[in-house]
Fold this protein.
Amino acid sequence: MPDSNLVTGNSYLVTNIMEYDVVVIGSGPGGYVAAIRCAQLGMKTALIEKYSTLGGTCLNVGCIPSKALLDSSEHYYNATHTFKEHGIDVKDVKVNLKQMIDRKAGVVKQTCDGINYLMKKK
Ligand SMILES: Cc1cc2nc3c(=O)[nH]c(=O)nc-3n(C[C@H](O)[C@H](O)[C@H](O)COP(=O)(O)OP(=O)(O)OC[C@H]3O[C@@H](n4cnc5c(N)ncnc54)[C@H](O)[C@@H]3O)c2cc1C
């Protein structure tokens, strides 16, 4: 379709219509990998995401944050269950939930930023 401004009967305004060879909806692992591959193959590719960050379920609320929290909980488990056997005495081990969640948010941000970087790469 050529560049144009359209107003439909439903008052839906569309400006600057662009042409793409491929449009991928959803920036999860399925979507962003498909979009990158299409671009690598020389196709003009658009990736559409309804949320403000790329990466889909996996990066934002699924695999990455759950593994970041599992990592933290494993450290806690080891500090309270296995350190003693190794001759490591620690006292008053406590969970600082805010710090744990902040760290998880940092891991998610780092991973999502990685996808942003890949999307901007020529
Ligand atoms: C808690 C949890 C832990 C998990 N852990 C693992 C794990 O350890 N290992 C593993 O392999 N898998 C794991 N998964 C599964 C993994 O997250 C999914 O298999 C993977 O995200 C699927 O990728 P996808 O691209 O198909 O879909 P998604 O990642 O769900 O991405 C779909 C994207 O499409 C967007 N979208 C949908 N509709 C529209 C629309 N109309 N317009 C614009 N955007 C749209 C969504 O916003 C979303 O960003 C986990 C899932 C959860 C919930």
In short: The pocket of flavin-adenine dinucleotide is lined by residues 25-31, 48-51, 56-58, 62-63, 66 (CB under 6 Å).
